[in-house]
Amino acid sequence: MESFFTGWKDPDLTDQGKQEALKGAEELKKYGYTHFNIAFTSALQRAQKTLDIQLKAIGQEGINVVKDQALNERDYGELTGLNKDDARAKFGEEQVHTWRRSYDIQPPGGESLKLTADRVLPFFEKNIKPLVEKGESVLVAAHGNSLRAMIKYLENLTPEEIIKTELATGVPIVYQIDSDGKVVDKKILQ
Question: CB 3.0–4.6 Å: which of 59, 72, 157, 187 could bond 162 by disulfide?
C-alpha cells in the first residue's frame, strides 16, 4: 500500500480509514464509552468522516461538533502529496526521518511537531480542557500529530519521549482528567 504525506491536503477517508474508524467505535462501545457531551475534530474531511462514523456507531449522532483547523494534521510543506518512498529517494532516508521524527526540525515550508503543538495547544487549553475539568465527556477525532501534541501536554512528555510515541490509527485513547487538569487514568482501547 502506498503511503503519502497528506498533511493539510484534504483527501477523502479511505476504505481502510472507514474500517479503522468503525473498529475504534466498536472499542468505545465495548468499554462503555457511548455518551459524550461534545466532540471536536479538524477542518479536514478525513477526520470529520472518522468522527461521523464513530458517532453513528455509538448512537451519538446530533451532538455538538466543533470543527477547527487548529486540530488539523501537521503541515508537511514541500513533502505534502509525495509518496513517502519517493520523498526518501529525493531527499535521502536520513533527512526524511529527521523531518518526520524530530520535535523541532521542520520539513521545507512545513511544520515541526513543536510548531504543530504551538497551534494545537492554545485551542486545547481554551476549548477542550475547561470542559473536561468541569467533568464533561469529550471526544476528539483528529490526526496523528495533532493528537501527539495533546498527548505530550497531557502526559508531560519531553520532546524525546513524544517523538518515540507511536499512535495506532483508529485506536481510541481514553484519558480521565481531574478538575485540576491532571491525568488520573489512561486507557488504550484495543
Answer: 157
Residue 6 annotated as part of some ligand binding site: yes
**160 annotated as belonging to a binding site for a ligand:** no
Distance CA 95, CA 118 (A): 23
State residue 189's pLDDT score.
97
Q: Which grid coordinates are listed for 84?
A: 513517502
Ligand-binding site membership of 88 (annotated): no
Per-residue b/e over 17-50, b at no fewer than 16 CB within 10 Å? Answer: bbebbbbbbebbeeeebeebebbbbbebebbbbb
Q: Is the pTM here over 0.90, yes or no?
A: yes
Is 144 one of the annotated binding-site residues? yes
For residue range 136-164, what is the model confidence (pLDDT) as tens digits? 999 999 999 999 999 999 999 999 999 99
